[in-house]
Design a protein that fits this description.
single chain, 84 residues, mainly alpha, 4 helices, globular
Length: 84
Amino acid sequence: MPYPTGHRTEVRKNIIQSARKLFNRYGFENVSVQQIMAGAGLTHGGFYSYFKSKSDLYTEVLGCFLTDPEWKNCWRRARGSFLH
């Protein structure tokens, strides 16, 4: 049975969300592809069907932060939690 329409887009979004949270908390160098995929509820084997590299994913995360106002609000909340 094939996946429903939009499945691939939703999975990609979940990977980006997981990466955003982990990069924000631990930094790019301290997060593995396996951790990112686990945070998205996936195994690391499928990562490269969505992104060429971890650096490409990082570029995507930064692009979302710079262009989507909701991401900026999430970033501020996450950053603020470290200040308390």
